Amino acid sequence: MTLLTETAGSEWWRSAVIYQIYPRSFADNNGDGMGDLPGITSHLSDLASLGIDAIWLSPFMTSPQKDAGYDVADYCDVDPIFGTMSDFDVMLKTAHTLGIRVIVDLVPNHSSDQHAWFQQALAAAPGSPERARYMFRDGQGPDGSLPPNNWDSVFGGSAWSRLTEPDGAPGQWYLHLFDESQPDFDWSNPEVREYFEGVLRFWLDRGVDGFRVDVAHGLIKMDGLPDYTPDPEGGSMGGDADDVPYWGQPAVHEIYREWHKLLATYDDDRALCAEAWLPTPEKTALWVRPDEMHQAFNFPYLVTEWDAVALRRVITESLRAFPGVGAPPTWVLSNHDVVRHASRLALTADNPQGDGIGPKSQGKPDPAVGLRRARAATTLMLALPGSAYIYQGEELGLPEAMEIPDDARQDPTWFRTNGERYGRDGCRVPIPWQSGAPAYGFNDTGASWLPQPEEWAGLTRDLQEADSESTLWLYRTLLAERRERGLGVGTLEWLEGFGDDVIAFRNDAVTVIVNIGAAPVQLPAGVVVTSSGPLEGAQLPVDTAVWLETV
Ligand code: GLC
Questions:
Q1: Which is nearest to 454 in space by CA: 440, 441, 443, 470?
Q2: Helix boundaries (H) for 325-411
Q3: Residues 392 and 309 reside in one and the same domain
């Protein structure tokens, strides 16, 4: 069965490999323990040599950092902890000179409570135009002391907080789907729409190549804000129900149609990528219909377990759904919100997205199994047609940091659930560059906003650079071969006869076989292009993937 032929166009984002930089943890130039823009600039040539096409930067805009920058106080400026606007311009120019496109994060669902608009809203009266930019409501009950509805915050606790009005009286409530420091905008207000068009233009005029749009399924809330009790199995950011009154409301698509038109007035194929946690590729594809966004993260793929049947199913569905609307499929295994895939794929207990792993978690993975599976999973992912996302540090095979002490934790999830859910700190730890150096070369002072695990001493980039069997070299080889063989714009054809536990397909001239079973698999004749681990003669060991050139 042949599944994907070329999608409609030749724009760069249809087949790009996009590397996510989490600025806090990538490289720290000034030694304060927090990564920064000059740190990024200084390592762009390392990314060019890795072979990626673009970078996406998590937010570096002005922010009190209550949610690691996803709480923006000024959308058109750089937070001093990351540097200055001219540091940004230098970074952008350097990236472009190296042939790397740059995508920035846009956070339109909510601002920080320190945003000028929210501060004005607090000072203004109920019913005022200042309050109409956010979701203020009166409380329920005779004295308004109950929240307006029963919605929970993604990070735990109620999604509503109550104000004390300027005169000292208990006042209205405001909605925050995330932390209480992240009030939701009211996107039915045209002023909010106009404001964000200005923000888009600001960054487009500076020369960015696109936006990753945060919580792109959340901007519009159902009229009347009806009560809703989420499916406990649904994960914090999505869920299966079609009737979730704050995710995936149809009117959200109008916003992206407007943005699509706005981007089209610029040259050079600027792109929008939706962070929309939806349960199926089919639903996710609604965000990338021809007049909407250009890409959407394939979270149904990310959450699929290490299981051949389930992976085949989600790949097939993705290759139908995205090209079905003229969009490229995308693939992603790790990001700053999920347990790193070198750990996640070997967990032995359920771990809902966003909960994280900490000292007391059950089902911790065997690190060797995790790494073997992660290498195989990436070897599979980078053979798939479409665009792929890589999260900083996965090219080093980094596992989740699972032993962060309680008093070092930073994720609001940890605080809002009184330590019941660890949250996402374990995938956000500053990455290791150099063995034997302070903070493993993250900076030269040894400071680090989250503690780095001791085991990372053996995973630094310089050590891996010198070892041709390393995960770094595996990524480099995969990226080079993918580019040279045009796999990103290829055609996938499933191969039969390898058994249920094996994934086998051809992407043009490359045959890809992944053994997810319990016994070695006999390989067909062919020349090995690369493999995620050593082969045993003509046998493919378990948890191993291979690319073969067959005739
Ligand atoms: C997105 C971000 C996550 C953030 C949340 C609220 O899911 O990826 O890190 O906490 O939105 O902005």
A1: 440
A2: 341-344, 367-381
A3: yes
Separation CA 521–CA 515 (nearest Å) = 7
Of these residues, 184, 275, 317, 355, which one is catalytic?
275
CA of 329 to the centre of ligand 1 (A): 22
399 and 334 fall within a common domain:
yes
Mutate to test the pocket of ligand 1, among 337, 353, 391, 428 (most ligand atoms within 8 A of CB): 337
The CATH number of the domain holding residue 58 is 3.20.20.80
- The domain containing residue 171 runs over which residues? 116-175
Same domain, 303 and 170: no
Q: How many domains does the chain have?
A: 2
Query: Is any atom of ligand 1 closer than 6 Å to the C-beta of 427?
Result: no
Nearest CA, atom 7, ligand 1? 215
Two tokens at 422? 């660890």
Q: What is the CATH number of the domain that holds 151?
A: 3.90.400.10
* 214 flagged as catalytic: yes
pLDDT digits (tens, 9 = 90+) for 240-267: 667 899 999 999 999 999 999 999 999 9
CB 179 near ligand 1, within 6 Å: no
Residue 214 beta carbon below 6 angstroms from any ligand 1 atom? yes
Asked if residue 400 and residue 432 are part of one domain, the reply reads: yes
CA distance 139 to 152: 15
- Tens-place pLDDT, residues 174-228: 999 999 999 999 999 999 999 999 999 999 999 999 999 999 999 999 999 999 9
Identify whether residues 278 and 362 lie together within a single domain. Answer: yes
Q: What is the pTM of this model?
A: 0.97
Taking CA atoms, 475 is separated from 2, 169, 377, 471, in Å, by 27, 59, 11, 6
Q: pLDDT digit string (tens) for 426-455?
A: 999 999 999 999 999 999 999 999 999 999
Residue 400 is among the residues annotated as catalytic for this protein: no
